[in-house]
Specification:
The chain is an alpha/beta fold. It is built from 7 helices and 11 strands. The strands form 3 sheets. Strands 2, 3, 4, 5, 6, 7 and 8 form a 7-stranded mixed sheet that branches. Strands 1-11 form a two-stranded parallel ribbon. Strands 9-10 form a two-stranded antiparallel sheet.
């Protein structure tokens, strides 16, 4: 894996990288600053310091090892019915999402997923939750998206203890018809919460869980024919079609090497900083048996 000494803005950062929520598909894409050395350092600090030994990372268990995921299925009094069946949700998690993260992390993380046996009714109507949230703000404190997730945890606690899980996905009937929302999901950045707005599919769930591991969006950078990495170029939101954090939609669209290094799955030994013009060998990184020392 190569890393440029002068970091080119080839991967978009969350428009509010320090806020707890990231937007998967918003009515307008976030404004994301170019990736600079300082913002890269800040972003990596939000996850882990990959150069530290595993035993020294106070939050290493959030990125490595077994992750217990609870999928809470909910509905509303004015929008009733399951957004996804128990069988379908369990299959997506066990047969698609879980294997993807095991493969992408070289076996360094895994998932054990539990889907609630029943659909829980939330205390507010879908309209109340949807119209009360401004999901394009830089913070979700005290807004309805935050409240929706908190209410889902509360109603499910009678059957599932939050202490037994590491990540929480709340799946609810699609709210597009209610409010015109056209985003599919939200997630805590390097956190534990995920919202799925009706579309409980691999590409949505895995993308949002990627954010909980600290993965940023994967964009493209449109420079010029003479200088493709010119800082005066244009960022193309979700423009990396080969990355699940960008425009990729299948398990073959693995996270980029940069994202894996950012999370800590690729060690510093696998990254060569390019400082002078020369010929460099790039090793394959998208297989379980990749040599992590190159």
């Amino acid at each position: 894996t190569l890393r440029w000494l002068a970091v080119a803005p080839v991967i978009g950062l969350p428009g509010h990288a320090m806020s707890p929520v990231e937007i998967r598909c918003g009515v307008a894409d976030e404004f994301m600053p170019p990736l600079t050395a300082s913002t890269e350092a800040t972003l990596r600090a939000r996850t882990i310091n990959a150069s530290m030994p595993l035993s020294a990372r106070s939050n290493a268990s959030h990125y490595f090892g077994g992750q217990r995921v609870l999928v809470i299925r909910v509905d509303f009094s004015d929008l009733s019915g399951e957004s996804v069946s128990l069988a379908t949700a369990q299959s997506v998690m066990d047969n698609e999402v879980g294997p993807f993260f095991a493969q992408s992390s070289y076996g360094q993380t895994s998932m054990v997923s539990t889907v609630t046996a029943k659909v829980y009714r939330l205390p507010q109507t879908s309209v109340a939750y949807a119209t009360g949230a401004d999901l394009l703000k830089s913070s979700v404190d005290n807004n309805s998206a935050d409240q929706l997730h908190a209410d889902a945890l509360a109603v499910a606690q009678s059957d599932y203890s939050p202490a037994d899980y590491d990540r929480f996905i709340v799946a609810f009937p699609v709210l597009n018809a209610v409010t015109g929302f056209n985003w599919w999901g939200l997630a805590d950045y390097a956190g534990s919460r995920v919202w799925i707005n009706g579309n409980f599919k691999f590409e949505v769930v895995a993308h949002e869980l990627g954010h909980t591991y600290g993965a940023p969006h994967a964009s493209a950078w449109r420079g010029s024919l003479s200088d493709p990495i010119a800082p005066t170029g244009t960022r193309v939101p979700y423009g990396d079609l080969s990355d699940l954090m960008g425009g990729g939609h299948t398990a073959e669209n693995d996270f980029s090497a940069y994202t894996k290094w950012l999370i800590g799955w690729l060690p510093d030994a696998a990254v060569q900083t390019v400082q002078v013009t020369g010929r460099y060998r790039v090793y394959r990184y998208d297989t379980m048996d990749a040599n992590l020392q190159h």
